[in-house]
Amino acid sequence: MKICVFTLGCKVNASESESLIRGLTETGYEVTEKLEKADLYLVNTCAVTAEAEKKSRQTAARIRALNPSAEIIYTGCACQKDPAAFSAKENVRLVTGTFDKGKILGMLEERGVRIAPEEREFEEMLPPETERARQYIKIQDGCDNFCSYCIIPYLRGRSRSRKKENVKREIDGAKCAEVVLNGIDLSAYRDGDTDLAGLMRYLADTEKRVRLGSLEVRVVTEELLSALSRMKNFAQHFHLSLQSGSDAVLKAMNRHYTAAEFLEKVALIRKYFPYAGITTDLIAGFPAETETDFQQTLSAAEKAAFSDIHCFPYSPRSGTKAFAMKDLPAAVKKERLERLLAVKNSCRNAFVARNYNHEEKAVIEEVSDGYFVGYTGNYLRVYLEKGLPYREIGVIIKEKFRDGVRAESKGE
Which of 23, 152, 341, 365 is the 20 to 30 Å CA partner of 391? Predict the structure, then answer.
């Protein structure tokens, strides 16, 4: 039997899907990650935005077009939010939610809706086994923040973390050059007395390059940055979600920092890592955002000199506190998004230029169109004429090229 494991959404979903793929492969199934013809489809859904939830539901029609007789198992956040919307689809065999995903491997013949109760402890799943250059490792799940625009804490449950010994064991066993540690709220990682800084100290001698997923401002401290600076091979990239540069909007979002505090943390990162890539998320057109509020967002982005910005128009989510707020006109959100994208491009170009002739280490992930393509530690996409696939090599950044930079192998 051929099974397709199709993933939408975040890197945590990707980690969980890779675990399921390993389990299915070891059981003897033929497995693909591409949405192509198969006998059974296991779809890991997303609900971070209304559009993501819509795309999750639309996979049913796409699957039937590939194989009208195939059956579908749905799992993940969108199913946790609205299981009936998925169980009502044609060809759907089983619907599960965000909890007990590891048990899906023993439920392939079951039918109906199986929404497990909220988990209080971190669920260990089979470590993924991938031949890729980069492997995602889930070390935390759930969220206690309850930002006013976000539905995820209601779907993923309370924060819970993985034992540090299990994290290290998976890293040591990974067949890759780089691991990415991720979670729904990675900053909340805590195993007993070990917080994220303590975990980094515990992993200090790890040979593989270690990259962190998205962080909250509160976790960026001297203690964490000092621990990271002492690691043998830390990828100098920080994704800090700003969301808005207006203190009034941040308060309405239930984000517990000010724009000035955020910029102080950016400066602290650059004290330790002058060439660090610092990326962020920004929402354009949050309810009640004034033109002055938005101007403050643009100003904060320029002051932070981000290496890249993920820009989104605000999307109302039923079940969140912000859903009751008066939404801005679509035209206003569209216009502000366009201005935000212009700042994104300016920041991106300036960061690339700042890296010219700078030495970095890059992990080569693929060979494409005659180039060896990968990512530096500070998350620049590099193109080289010579390289070693799935290996980390020293490079010198030369110039802007395609969607990244052209680089030369160190010593050329």
Answer: 23
